Amino acid sequence: MSETLARRVGRLVSGGFHAVLDAAENLAPEAVMNESIREIERAVDEVRAELGRVLAQKHLATKKMADESNRHETLSDSLQAAVDAGRDDLAEAGIAEQMDIEARLPILENTIADCAAQEKELEGFIAALQAKKREMQQELQQWRTAQQSNAGASGAAGGSDLNRIARNVEKSGNAFDRIMGKQNAVYNSSDAAQLAKLKELEDLSRNNRIAERLAALKVKK
Fold first, then answer.
1. Is the CB of residue 27 less than 8 Å from the CB of residue 180?
2. Distance from chain centroid for Cα 76
3. How far apart are the C-alpha atoms of 131 and 74, rounded to whole Å?
4. Which of 36, 111, 159, 171 is the most buried (most CB within 10 A)?
5. Which tens digit of pLDDT belongs to each residue from 77-87?
6. What CA–CA distance (Å, rounded) separates 118 from 2?
7. What's the rounded Cα separation, in Å, for the pair 97 and 112?
8. Apex 107 CA angle, 101 and 109, nearest 5
């Protein structure tokens, strides 16, 4: 995962609802908050795309390592046959290839381990972003409820506030760019099916963890 994307995830997860509202001034805080939630969704898509690339690299490295190991084992049998036949030249060539394979295997092992670490990190980022999205959606709903209560108490003044907000909705995009330091990265996925599968896997994993914690709590009762 690139450092820029990692910093972006950190900024989104650490951002606060009330800080956004305070910075929004009079430029439609609800529109700004909705845009904040949409940016989190875009970041989740980007992290999922990065996760897909890491998983593909891990798969290729794992397959290559298996092929190399099989080749190494096959050469061992061939080497013995060459020695038995008195063909030292063939045995030497086979030994040289085995040594090359042995030099490549640690690199492949490191690649797989690195991909596994990135996979875990990216899955953690997705979980954190999804949790932040749920938190923001809940806080936005609470804010809407409070606004409705205030509108009912203030009567005509509330209608005036709504008109002012409506006039300024068009400006909210620029306000969000200034407030949140938005990066205008354009995400173009060439494999929507892969992203859908990753999303399904992520949801299944989360539901399993929830069920496990619930079962553990029931055992303690």
1. no
2. 43
3. 50
4. 36
5. 888 888 888 88
6. 11
7. 22
8. 100
**Relative orientation angle of helices 88-154 and 3-14, to the nearest 10 degrees:** 30
Would you list the DSSP string of 84-117? Answer: HTT-HHHHHHHHHHHHHHHHHHHHHHHHHHHHHH
Rounded alpha-carbon distances, angstroms, from residue 180 to 21, 27, 77: 11, 14, 63
3-state secondary structure of 2: coil
Residue 186 DSSP symbol: P
Residue 63 tokens read as 């397959």
Rounded Cα–Cα distance for residues 126 and 47 (Å)? 7
Residues 176-185 have a mean pLDDT of: 40
Three-class DSSP category at 167: helix
Secondary structure letter of residue 171 according to DSSP: G
Q: Where are the alpha helices (DSSP H) in 24-155?
A: 29-84, 88-154
Q: What is the pLDDT of residues 4-52, one digit of tens each?
A: 777 877 777 776 555 555 555 555 677 778 888 888 888 899 899 999 9
pLDDT tens per residue across span 67-107: 999 999 988 888 888 888 888 888 888 889 889 999 999 99
Return d(Cα 51, Cα 118) in angstroms, integer: 8
Return the half-sphere exposure (C-beta side, CA atoms, 13 A cut-off) of residue 53.
10
Q: Tokens 């008109």 sit at which residue?
A: 163
Q: How many residues make up the chain in this entry? A: 221
Do the Cβ atoms of 69 and 105 come closer than 8 Å? yes
